[in-house]
Amino acid sequence: MWYLMMLLLCPALCSTLPQDGSLSITVRKRNDLATGSSCNCQGLKCGLVGRTNRVVGGSETTLTELPWIAAMFYKGKLYCGAALVSNEHLVTAAHCINRVDKRHVEIVFGSHNISDVVEAGRQTRRVGDWWAHPGFQRRSFNNDIGVIRLSEPLVLGTDVRPVCLPESGGDYVGQHAIVAGWGRVSEKGRNSEVLRKVRVPIMSNDECKTKKYRPSEITDNMVCAGYDQGKIDACQGDSGGPMMFETKNNAGQRQVDLIGVVSWGQGCARPGYPGVYTRVENFSNFLRQQIGASCLCPRN
Ligand SMILES: *[C@@H]1O[C@H](CO)[C@@H](O)[C@H](O)[C@H]1NC(C)=O
Ligand SMILES: *[C@@H]1O[C@H](CO)[C@@H](O)[C@H](O)[C@H]1NC(C)=O
């Protein structure tokens, strides 16, 4: 039998989500953004990777390497990841929003060890509002993307900074993406306390359709990545978390684009079943409309 399996945290998520909770989808019009938005890049460019090493309690970590990563908690349990794209907007998966009661959601930024509540750079916010893509389909996971606006803007700095949205149609096939999160370290394993990242090769959709999924399951709005032999997958990331691609800006600085959103896969790191991600470049209009293009931080 073929079926889709929500990546990673499904068992945890499914047991904690209210079964009756339903969320109406509203698409915010561009004009609504003119008033009330407090977005401000505080002079920062998007996507600049942080210091890659910092010694904490004697062990090396990568605390500020990916400062746009956020952990989403539902009633205190980690259930999804997300990526910061302004000082108050996040991109995540629609299935992390759809049918979830936002009053019970808390989002943590600037964290490395999610169990360590006294981390210096940590900021916590609630959901002000959120929008799943109106075309999201739970059956196919097509259009699995959504936008969150926080209850209150963040203070941007070393530990908390936004990632870049891709400019347009990059060809990533054959190159590696980075996927990160606090998700399970194996299909039946536990969540990770510390942020982990993996490198996965990006494949063309034509190639992905030759893998063990049914070709029709892989739509143009998805992108697949992973190794044929399995073993390394977005199981180490979370649903809704970022798939990232590193480029260089005009000043030669390493800069990271959000090219995908962790969406689904059958199991985790099973041979022949690559991870499937929402292809962010296909949602450029939706994202810019929901977020307000002027809220996005400059690349250069
Ligand atoms: C994470 O933080 C908790 C609470 O401070 C601590 O008990 C745990 O050992 C830390 N985990 C790691 C992997 O450092
Ligand atoms: C999504 O993007 C891909 C790659 O640029 C393109 O081939 C495809 O037609 C797009 N699909 C949709 C539905 O816009």
UniProtKB/TrEMBL annotation:
The keyword Hydrolase applies. It comes from the Eukaryota. It comes from Hyalella azteca. InterPro entries: Peptidase_S1_PA (IPR009003), Peptidase_S1_PA_chymotrypsin (IPR043504), Peptidase_S1A (IPR001314), Trypsin_dom (IPR001254), TRYPSIN_HIS (IPR018114), TRYPSIN_SER (IPR033116). Gene3D superfamilies: Trypsin-like serine proteases. One of its GO terms (molecular function) is serine-type endopeptidase activity. Pfam families: Trypsin. SUPFAM superfamilies: Trypsin-like serine proteases (SSF50494). GO terms for biological process: proteolysis. Residues 55-292 form the Peptidase S1 domain. Keywords: Disulfide bond, Hydrolase, Protease, Serine protease, Signal. This is Trypsin. Residues 1-16 form the signal peptide.
